[in-house]
Write a structure and sequence with these properties.
- The protein is α+β, with helices and mostly antiparallel strands.
- Helices cover 52% and strands 13% of the residues.
- The chain is built from 7 helices and 4 strands.
- A two-stranded parallel sheet has the order 1-2.
- α1 packs across α2 and α2 packs across α3.
- The longest helix is centred in the middle third of the chain and has 16 residues.
- The radius of gyration is 18 Å and the shape is elongated.
Length: 150
């Protein structure tokens, strides 16, 4: 399925949107994530970062109240990470509510209004970005931040 048809699928099947309306909305979101020029490309013709941006457009086109991102950059080459993080950063600037699970600490510090640090399924510390990254209280968080900066 092409990128545009991939984004259209949920709109047509779930939202029962007319195909022309779904295409217009899909193209709007593909443009927003920098993928409009590749709207007719198939997954095998896209890089991992481009595929991830199409996936983000597909999810956002459904107009969710909350976006969940679980390690959105985990399967990407380092050079592709920045293009996906830029899309997420732009969504945050526009007011999208997001729950982001990440090991990208620099990114989390830059974009988060609230941070929860978990270890082995338990919350160890929570607070503002400034609190968590500027003055971590728990030894576990201090060690984690120290290791993630090396």
């Amino acid at each position: 399925m092409s990128a545009v048809k991939n984004v259209m699928l949920g709109l047509v099947k779930t939202r029962k949107m007319a195909a022309d309306e779904a295409r217009a909305l899909a193209e709007t979101w593909l443009d927003r994530v920098g993928m409009l020029a590749r709207k007719d490309h198939f997954p095998g013709q896209l890089s991992g970062g481009q595929q991830q941006r199409v996936a983000i457009a597909r999810a956002i086109a459904m107009n969710p109240q909350l976006m969940l991102f679980d390690e959105v950059t985990s399967a990407l080459d380092p050079e592709l990470v920045s293009e996906v993080l830029a899309v997420v950063r732009d969504l945050g600037r526009d007011g999208m509510t997001m729950l982001l699970v990440t090991h990208e600490m620099r990114f989390a510090r830059d974009v988060s209004s609230r941070v929860i640090f978990m270890h082995q399924g338990r919350i160890h510390e929570e607070g503002t970005s400034e609190d968590i990254f500027g003055a971590p209280k728990s030894e576990r968080l201090q060690a984690f931040l120290s290791n993630s900066q090396s």
